[in-house]
Amino acid sequence: MDAKVLIESFAEFARSKNVDRPTMIRILEDVFRAMIRKKFETDENFDVTINADKGDLEIFRIREIVDDNSEDIWDFDKISLTDARKIEPDFEIGEEVYEKIELEEFGRRAVQMARQTLIQKIKDLEKDILFNKYEELVGEVVTAEVYQILSREVLLIDGEGNELILPKGEQIPKDRFRKGDTVKAIVHKVDMMNGNPKIILSRTSPVFLERLFENEVPEVYDGLITIVKIVREPGERAKVAVESYDDRIDPVGACVGMKGSRIHAIVRELQNENIDVINYTENLELYVSRALSPAKVSSISVNEETKRISVFLKPDQVSLAIGKGGYNIKLASKLVGYEIDVFRELNENEEEDVDLVEFADEIDAWIIDELKKTGLDTAKSVLALTKEDLVRRTELEEETIEEIFRILRQEFEQ
């Protein structure tokens, strides 16, 4: 294989991978200089000129002519007068010899190795370009097509045929994909695994929801409305705290849109995830009240030392504050940065009840805490539910719940 064929085939391959001309020339020169070092031990006194467009390659070895008896005669950049005159008979001491080295002089094996090295270098460069491209896109939304569905992940391809990965843990639980589906997600992270870029996508990240708001709500994209914080239980519920520095703009109304037009587009993309948009305020008590929406809070007590907030509600508001599966109170706690405990307010004509704390000698403290997390703070509030209700609302075993019922009933029987 001569130089012209080698360079032209490499240049064509490089152009197909969208490698720019200066980078192509640099790679060619690096490979040819590596060949020179292998044969001549150094490339310091070699000049390499490449014209990738025409497939031209010129390699010149440059040496200074010295006397045959000179001590420098063995230096890599020196040549004896006798050897120089074999190249050109009228050379004199002190002149420089430019000796052209043909590619064939390196041997067929070296040329084949050079070809393989060139292709590998382009492939490595392609991986670096892909890694750098997606590293800059971390946190941005991309659209890709599903081409393979595996048990632990879905493989997608972008518009350029690059493989992207959507792990099971980064999928919304209600997501169901088929080959050929178009999927939106954010670039979650980019890793280099064994020399290959691994691009991980996510649909569960709060950042994905933030980007969807930016796409659907021009005021968010333009910075007129700021998203202060997002908390999510993917596919179930999300709470988004927003604020505007312009009094003329209602941040909640702008995010929801006319008749919910803007929020509905986001909800559909997130598999009907219930999204609460909340007006942010630095007034903690007001912020907590808004975070627990749609429940109406009667009163609030804040303990700064323990970072806990006690919220008191009318009995019919407790279940609204807790929400289906406990998601409402869990997300409200994350949004405000405090642990929220829900307590029922007793009506004046309600029969005397007993606080669960009174049973601390018979019921473990962690069990009482578990019950309180779901708004059950008194004996009667627990007894008003069935065993099945408690199994569903707490993480307690059936045997434990039966024992709780026995202890509480015994109190009222006495």
UniProtKB/TrEMBL annotation:
Function: Participates in both transcription termination and antitermination.
Name under which the protein is recorded: Transcription termination/antitermination protein NusA
Organism for this UniProt entry: Algoriphagus limi
Keywords, in A-Z order: Cytoplasm, RNA-binding, Transcription, Transcription antitermination, Transcription regulation, Transcription termination
Compartment annotation: Cytoplasm
InterPro entries in UniProt: DNA_repair_Rad51/TF_NusA_a-hlx (IPR010995), KH_dom (IPR004087), KH_dom-like_a/b (IPR015946), KH_NusA_2nd (IPR058582), KH_sf_prok-type (IPR009019), NA-bd_OB-fold (IPR012340), NusA_N_sf (IPR036555), S1_domain (IPR003029)
Family to which this protein belongs: Belongs to the NusA family.
Subunit structure: Monomer. Binds directly to the core enzyme of the DNA-dependent RNA polymerase and to nascent RNA.
Residue span(s) of domain S1 motif: 139-204
Gene3D superfamilies, per database record: 3.30.300.20, Nucleic acid-binding proteins, NusA, N-terminal domain
Family annotation (Pfam families): KH_NusA_1st (PF13184), KH_NusA_2nd (PF26594), NusA_N (PF08529)
